[in-house]
Specification:
The chain is of the alpha+beta class. The protein has helices at 14-30, 74-80, 93-98, 116-124, 133-140, 142-151, 169-175, 199-209, 251-255, 270-286, 321-327, 333-351, and strands at 2-7, 34-39, 102-105, 159-163, 180-184, 193-194, 215-220, 225-232, 235-236, 240-244, 260-263, 292-299, 305-311. It has three domains: 2-130, Rossmann fold (3-Layer(aba) Sandwich); 140-154 and 224-312, ATP-grasp fold, B domain (D-amino Acid Aminotransferase, Chain A, domain 1); 159-220, ATP-grasp fold, A domain (Dna Ligase, domain 1).
Length: 353
């Protein structure tokens, strides 16, 4: 098949998406597919060949990439593109996507997981991997996801939904309990998350997060082990425990070597795995997600699991969490990428009936 692996984009998770995309592209090429890597934001502005021949490009346009220790400077990324227009879609992106049999979405964050690119591809009649536009958009919004968790009876931390301005911070600092977790509603990779323990830290957190927007959720802080469970098709996979080598699993510990220890399968009881797996599957279905997702939990000292969020396009580097879980059921990284494509084509075909 001709496959466009769409990566990069213009979100705080841009670097992660490029690494995911490069891994998936090379894996699909190892399976005999004509896969190419396309940066959604930068597009093909540096491609000088004939567009009709692009699926024969050496190494699928892949290059060596890695995740930096800090999130990308998005303003610098904007300025580096030759086309300084407002579109989030770079040169020839939609043209080359329309030439493909399927688009493998290796995007993360607000410009890939929020449903906009899925809706765009739907309008073009181009098949793509993963969830559709509506489920993606709902899952990306932590406030919406929390409402689904409450409605489905899935245990999650008590929370408040807050829109605010700088002028509201003194009042909110008095009203809100600490310790707590303050999260922007559309963040990812632990960007836009603060964990204040004191009122002073809370005021600073609210001030800092206004940089990302005026909508946050504030949760009671739950202490526990970090566990994640992936859903693939109609089943959940073995769990992973993440042991960060810092106070919590932040951007740096997630993506830098030695930042965390990941144990798969997680050293938990079968009952604990089943409880989290069933909750992950329940949330996946309630949101109308498709093909695959990854749901994150905290497991407290009493053995209670607390659901944090669901990721519709989780990291897909060869060493990411979902590939680790798939490996436990005998599925190689390349097999997983191909299975995501196969299931996604079935889902898109069913949606068109």
């Amino acid at each position: 098949m001709k496959i466009v692996v769409l990566a990069g984009g213009l979100s705080t998770e841009r670097h992660v998406a490029l690494v995911s995309g490069t891994g998936a592209c090379r894996a699909l090429r190892s399976k005999g597919h004509k896969a190419i890597l396309v940066d959604m934001f930068m597009g093909l502005e540096n491609y000088t060949g004939n567009l009709a021949d692009i699926f024969d490009a050496p190494d699928g346009l892949c290059s060596d990439v890695r995740v930096e220790s800090t999130a990308p400077d998005l303003e610098a990324v904007r300025k580096s593109r030759k086309d300084q227009g407002p579109s989030l879609l770079g040169k020839d992106v939609l043209t080359v996507c329309a030439m493909a049999d399927v688009v493998f979405l290796a995007l993360h964050g607000s410009c890939g997981e929020d449903g906009r690119i899925q809706a765009t591809l739907d309008l073009l009649g181009v098949p793509y991997t993963g969830s559709g536009y509506l489920g993606s958009g709902m899952a990306m919004d932590k406030s919406v996801t929390k409402r689904f968790l409450d409605a489905e009876g899935i245990r999650n931390a008590p929370w408040r939904d807050i829109y605010y301005t700088q002028a509201d911070i003194p009042r909110l600092t008095e009203e809100l309990e600490v310790p707590c977790a303050v999260k922007i509603v559309n963040g990812g990779s632990s960007i836009g998350v603060e964990l204040p323990d004191t009122k002073e830290e809370l005021a600073k957190a609210l001030h800092n997060l206004l940089h990302f927007g005026n909508h946050v959720i504030v949760e009671k802080k739950i202490k526990g082990r970090e566990i994640t469970v992936a859903v693939l098709g109609d089943r959940y996979l073995p769990a992973v425990e993440i042991v960060p080598h810092a106070d919590y699993f932040n951007y740096e510990t997630k993506y830098q070597a030695g930042g965390a220890t990941e144990i798969c399968p997680a050293p938990i009881t079968d009952e604990q795995w089943k409880n989290m797996g069933e909750a992950a599957l329940k949330l996946h279905r309630a949101l109308g997600l498709g093909v695959y997702s990854r749901t994150d939990f905290l497991l407290d000292e009493a053995g209670n699991d607390w659901c944090l969020e669901v990721n519709t396009l989780p990291g897909m580097t060869p060493t990411s969490l979902v590939p680790q879980e798939a490996a436990q059921v005998g599925m190689s990284y390349a097999d997983l990428c191909e299975e995501i494509v196969r299931q996604s084509l079935e889902v898109r075909k069913a949606e068109m009936k």
